[in-house]
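Retro notes (design track)

What went well: tokenization of the new backbones is finally stable.
What didn't: we kept losing track of which sequence belonged to which structure.
Fix going forward: every design gets posted as structure first, then sequence, in one message. First example under the new rule, 540 residues:
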């Protein structure tokens, strides 16, 4: 018999916390993260200045950026940060909302736990609520939009950028985002696919945000290969190679026995002949621009320059593929296979100085399936925040095109869901009903925070909104008007968001809340001792 002898299962130093203590600790940590970003929600949200361990600063209002930069220690808090990342990958927008919702769901769970509702019951109730909410979003709250409804696409883009520090240039940037996504979107069967990876976003500081431009083509951050090459080629015929224009050095060391000086000359002549052959073949195809993923020998560059051919070497594979989509060129493996039909076209290829760098612009493509946006702005901080906003906008526009459904913003969607879920809750029955009600209440945090961040009385706002969504004359589109704190139809204010953003925020918030709630035992191994100063390899 064991007779009280403790069995050591865990290594010495392991920390363990079980039961309710573990749950409430985890909830507290997760809520702390949510509380930290709640004040940034919405266009009136405040920015955060983040200072990393190197002293570099980031100023942003973007939930996922904040959470990525902050070093979160607690495991439950880390789970919340993951939610923001998932939301960002899936939708590009709604990261703060997802995190704030998750925090609120956990807050509401706490009071249920105090009433002795078991965590698994809460989790089940939340799952049912999410399912019903998704159904309501699709069938009752969302509004279908046609892919050519440019006005709604623009509204979605401006709403997505509304809270970012680019306010003054919002409309211009929204236009760029919509045009870019429209250019790369394509019909596949009866579906529309808009792959934002086909939009190459680059940034260079200098100039102002309004210098940001959409280019019907691709910008390569590479200069031309030789100073004698033309800086500009009009009516470009572009060859894309994914092999080098060099002579392969043999893998095994080889020895060439040369018996007399003429043999050396022969050898060099032979090499030269190959180089000339390369250039001749390219010229014969009709190309006046060559872009290679690999290297190009200096001698070849020299001959190309002599022929007036513009060449760029060592271009990223992803850029080469984008070039192919933009110009209609086929990527060719060996220069010998190059035929006129492999060439792509662009109105112009030229080298431009942007900021301190020379870049190659391939512009004026007639039907580009891939485009570029070059972001400009006074400082690096500005261009970075523009990039973040634009990324949100691009993804938002693409989800509207792909899904074709838009929901009202400004908390209207959340309030409407809350009102409808409360009515639906009794049909769930059991204690799960309490969880559904808690879920409904948690949703109200969105309009609540929007109003609070706008400097209004959030309780009044909520009362007004609930009234607007219920009973006679109810309007599902009523949300917070941040100009006066009053309940207003969000479609009239052009504050609309993709269904996908709302759907994903709900499901990921509920998922992480469930995950945190299910944990009743935290076993943490002893931290390995931090390296003692001086013992580390890399200082001095
Ligand atoms: P997230 O990271 O969740 O996208 P944001 O800070 O971008 O967070 O805020 C998004 C919220 O702000 C959404 O609920 C959206 O509907 C709301 N919103 C955006 N623009 C407005 C506006 N002009 N008036 C009211 N609400 C707005
Ligand atoms: Mg947003």
């Amino acid at each position: 018999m064991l007779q009280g002898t403790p069995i050591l299962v865990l290594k010495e130093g392991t920390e363990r916390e079980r039961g309710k203590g573990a749950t409430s600790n985890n909830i507290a940590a997760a809520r702390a993260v949510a509380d930290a970003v709640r004040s940034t929600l919405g266009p009136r949200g405040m920015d955060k200045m983040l200072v990393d361990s190197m002293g570099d600063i980031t100023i942003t209002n973007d939930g996922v950026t904040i959470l990525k930069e902050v070093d979160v220690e607690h495991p439950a808090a880390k789970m919340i940060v993951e939610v923001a990342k998932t939301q960002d990958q899936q939708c590009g927008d709604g990261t703060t909302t997802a995190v704030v919702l998750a925090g609120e769901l956990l807050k509401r769970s706490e009071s249920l736990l105090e009433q002795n509702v078991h965590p698994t019951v809460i989790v089940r109730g939340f799952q049912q609520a999410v399912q019903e909410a998704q159904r309501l979003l699709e069938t009752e709250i969302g509004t279908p939009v046609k892919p050519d409804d440019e006005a709604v696409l623009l509204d979605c883009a401006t709403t997505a950028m509304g809270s970012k520090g680019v306010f003054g240039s919002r409309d211009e940037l929204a236009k760029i985002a919509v045009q870019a996504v429209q250019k790369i979107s394509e019909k596949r069967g009866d579906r529309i696919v808009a792959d934002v990876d086909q939009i190459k976003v680059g940034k260079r500081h200098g100039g102002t945000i309004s210098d940001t431009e959409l280019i019907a083509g691709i910008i390569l951050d590479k200069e031309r290969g030789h100073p004698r090459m033309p800086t500009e080629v009009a009516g470009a015929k572009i060859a894309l190679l994914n092999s080098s224009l060099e002579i392969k050095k043999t893998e095994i060391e080889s020895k060439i026995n040369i018996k007399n000086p003429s043999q050396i000359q022969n050898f060099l002549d032979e090499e030269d002949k190959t180089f000339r052959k390369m250039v001749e073949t390219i010229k014969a195809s009709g190309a006046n621009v060559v872009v290679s993923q690999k290297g190009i020998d200096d001698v070849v560059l020299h001959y190309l320059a002599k022929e007036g051919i513009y060449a760029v070497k060592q271009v990223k594979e992803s850029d080469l593929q984008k070039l192919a989509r933009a110009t209609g060129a086929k990527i060719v493996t060996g220069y010998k296979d190059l035929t006129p039909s492999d060439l792509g076209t662009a109105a112009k290829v030229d080298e431009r100085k942007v900021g301190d760098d020379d870049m190659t612009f391939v512009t004026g493509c007639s039907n580009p399936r891939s485009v570029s946006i070059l972001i400009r702005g006074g400082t690096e901080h500005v261009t970075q925040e523009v990039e973040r906003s634009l990324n949100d906008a691009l993804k938002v526009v693409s989800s509207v095109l792909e899904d074709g459904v838009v929901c009202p913003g400004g908390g209207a969607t959340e309030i409407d869901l809350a009102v409808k879920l409360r009515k639906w809750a009794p049909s769930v029955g059991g204690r799960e009903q309490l969880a559904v009600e808690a879920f409904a209440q948690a949703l109200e945090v969105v309009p609540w925070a929007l109003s609070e961040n706008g400097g209004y009385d959030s309780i009044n706002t909520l009362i007004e909104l609930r009234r607007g969504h219920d009973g006679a004359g109810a309007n599902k589109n009523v949300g917070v008007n941040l100009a006066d704190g009053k309940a207003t139809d969000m479609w009239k204010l052009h504050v609309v968001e993709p269904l996908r953003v709302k759907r994903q925020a709900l499901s990921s918030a509920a998922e992480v809340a469930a995950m945190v709630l299910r944990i009743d035992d935290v076993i943490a191994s002893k931290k390995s001792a931090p390296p003692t100063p001086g013992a580390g390899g890399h200082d001095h």
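Added context from the reviewer: Residues 13 and 529 are 12 Å apart (CA to CA).
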